[in-house]
Design goal:
By secondary structure, the chain is α+β, with helices and mostly antiparallel strands. 32% of the residues lie in helices and 21% in strands. It is built from 28 helices and 33 strands. The protein has a 6-stranded antiparallel beta barrel. A 4-stranded parallel beta sheet has the order 2-1-7-8, with helices on both faces. The protein has a 4-stranded antiparallel beta sheet with strand order 18-19-20-21. A hairpin with a 4-residue loop joins strand 32 and strand 33. The longest helix has 28 residues. It is globular, with a radius of gyration of 34 Å. The two termini are 50 Å apart.
Amino acid sequence: MTTTEKKPRRLVIVESPTKARTIVGYLGEGYDVEASVGHIRDLPTPSELPADMKKGPYGKFAVDVDNGFDPYYRIDPGKKKKVAELKRLLKDADELYLATDEDREGEAIAWHLLEVLKPKVPVKRMVFHEITPEAINRALENTREIDDALVDAQETRRILDRLYGYEISPVLWRKIRAGLSAGRVQSVATRLVVERERERMAFVAADYWDLDIDLGLPDGTSPFAANLATLDGARVASGRDFDDAGKLKNASATVVDQARAEELAELLNGSKKDSLTVTAVESKPYSRKPATPFTTSTLQQEAGRKLRMSARQAMRTAQSLYEHGYITYMRTDSPALSGQAIAAARKQVTELYGPEFVPESPRVYKGKQKSAQEAHEAIRPAGDSFRTPAQVSKALSGDEFRLYDLIWKRTVASQMADAKGKTATIRVRADLGDGHEAGFTASGTVITFRGFLAAYEEGQDAGRYDSKSGESRLPQVEEGQALSVVKAEADGHTTAPPPRYTEASLVKALEELGIGRPSTYASIISVIQDRGYVTSRGNALVPSWLAFSVVRLLEEHFTGLVDYEFTADLETELDRIAAGEEDRKAWLARFYFGDKSHDREGLKEVVDDLGDIDAREVNTVRISEGVALRVGRYGPYLEVSGSAEGEEPKRVSVPDDLAPDELTADKAAELIESQGDGDRELGVDPETGHTIVAKTGRFGPYVTEVLPESEEKPKRGAKKAKPRTSSLFKSMDLATIDLDTALKLLSLPRVVGQDEEGTEITAQNGRYGPYLKKGTDSRSLTDEEQIFTITLDEALKIYSEPKQRGGRRATAPLKELGEDPESKKPIVVKDGRFGPYVTDGETNATLRKDDDVETITLERAATLLAEKRAKGPAKKKTTTRKAPAKKTTAAKTTAAAKKTTAKKSTTATKSTTATKSTTATKSTTATKSADTKPKTP
């Protein structure tokens, strides 16, 4: 009788369902691959803490700052189902492979999984920077333990951000507006954008002139563009010679005005047309090297410049390419290429462009960062041999194809030969007569060997002083040779303010300052946009007036925390923790409580000693004499001082689309004049005899009636009569609204009719838009005009349909995508209360900010639905309050419990390496390097 030996089963856990589906095909039998769908636990908000912990040491931050900054972690309610599923799979497994990403974030996810799952089987940490069969096999053969230093670094960042946000944000709530947030990096990024806008607001333009001139040979052939360089030996001023106050920085430069430029043009087109002589010809060899392979930062910048992608869109597209096995890991500080990648690139260059395009020795790239803490290779096409864009064109489309094409070109070009050529400069003198002369220069580059330019050329951000001449082809001329003017025209210019940041240039600035890390830039930019601090105008980032208030408060009262150098130093110190060179608890203590030995003030001390903050002043920007912009609770407005003593200041609304640098003194005067004194009399209500006026208030434009003053003294306690008021519709204009429209608005709510049971149905406008109301049953309308036009039959039809969540009616699909691979049901795109979403009839998933209804694919929709299913149904808040029943595990976190349960047992773990991730049979396996073990309910 023969017995079949049981094959071992191995559970592999990754972060995303897409990554799981790709990897499972490479592992074969005996492997179960499951996704955790990101983090499974995190620091809860104070309101989510168990009741008995809310008044304890964890009550403020979910971190005990007085006991080694011990964090309290809670499994996300939406992930409990996922954790139960992972535990069930683990019961049948003989080994556990934690295959999350190889950066800090991925290391932390792996550690949290280990802490929660508490496996009793051997555990191995499996890392790879590309998802190909070869890379997966190499990862299986080279597993390691969890890197405690990386986990420490990530945990320190999480705690640091919690301390920063929870200490400073409440100050913003009290002094500016409820719901605002401050962040260690987001506040500094916002400050950069605001400072640039301040520079633009303070900028004074200056005018200067030169010539738009083409020169050529005496017979009129071989024309080329030239620049007016000197007049009578003095250099002619260009835009670079003026400061931002409109003053000339260099007194030796001469400013040409319009009259002088027109006089020169007339002379050179007329009597002095042939008075030009070549005074010098200079020629230099030209050589240009290719750009380095992509890092996270440079990929975001180039995708923004060339593909018009936001940083978030670029990262999400790159993540999809990585998870499907097309590119290497997309979060990296390093431009280095592996030996296999260099060989693959050089081979492809030889095949596609020829051997002359391959340099003699491979190009080796090294990062500028002293401590690159993310993946250790550049972003490149995956595999030991690269697939060309043509080879993936059938599998990829849209943004994914465009980004892969960009990555492939950049990688291949990085291993190609230099571009070669010659740069020539011609200097020309024009004799203007009476002892006067003008000097001209012309430069041009001729490429004789394209080298890497045959594959790729790096994009550039728009410059403030871009030159009009560059790579023009110049004729062969000699010193002393005569030239003629082909055409000359006076050309006027006005100096330009500093350009606003784009996402690409802001990423570049953050990296150059050493603020944040490339893997966080996309989320930082998204946060400052989502919070209303920054909006996009084309590619430019425009700060809101709200951002001005926030930045001013932080600059004046938290000066050190938004200092660029201080923030960059924090990153360096956090890198030291990741390298195991710094103790995280000691570092957090210095940051929060201060360090007297180095005269360093702690965050707690700064907040405790804030003193009085003048909220009105913080929210004020002076525009001109007697006119100030104020940031109110409901938005910005102009406040105009009264002309008479004791007169109430007048308020004038500010258009939402008016950028801060456009609100000049002249523009403010225009707004004040257009809105008059704030009251525009429309006429008299024929029914009441009351005057109807249109006004601007703190909530926007509205109409109201003027009630006559009562001659009788009101009785004590009697309520004063209130005038009818109604906000204007979004489609209405304060300057053009008439009496009839105002009376219709004041008549709201409008009675549409009654249903069969005699219940009245009304149409009205509310905080969330127009709606119908029948008793307590409300139904949304599609637009404000329906309030006046909807009929009883139409209203009854709306009430006959099933009520949708949020009061919306069922709508027809915007797009049909195909069958869901998991539920086997058709996926459609619909429009919901919170925007478009995808659904298979059972699960709904809202489209992300960069998803587009027109271009979303079936695969993207399936991924969104899979992620939503993995999170499970949203739990009601009441379920989290049942924590007191678990007093034995989570509640007893004070006194003695803090000294035992909370300990992370450094001594035991660090000394017994075998227990960490191989045997995993003891409780020390799931412990992380530190003195205290975070609590989890």
